[in-house]
Specification:
Layout: H1 2-47, E1 50-54, E2 61-63, H2 70-77, E3 87-92, E4 95-100, H3 101-105, E5 117-121
Parallel strand pairs: 1-5
Antiparallel strand pairs: 1-2, 3-4, 3-5
Amino acid sequence: MFMKVYLTCLALLFFAGCTSTRKANLKAREAYIQGQQEAMAQVAESKNPSVFVQGNVKNSKIPWTEGLTLSQTIVAAEYQGITTPRTIRLVRNRQPTDIKASELLKGQDVPVLAGDQIIILY
């Protein structure tokens, strides 16, 4: 009787392990496929690099070119606001940097990189 219970427990542990391995393999495969899709999206983006602008603008996606600056991006986005914004937030690699619009208007321009996000705050 003891041996039968022991073997049953052992069998359950074995099959439970197989299920866990199967689930782990499935998750690993899904993660691999997601990584491949993200890599392909980055390649596509690198062929057509852009800068993204949020706020009262006509164009929210601006093609990035070498030497593009923040003020050039805002002009290309065709800012539609009635008043001058207070702050412009530049988000690069998920790190926000706030730039006073008054400093930008004084000529203290900032280079913009492909994939940057610009948020015009009022």
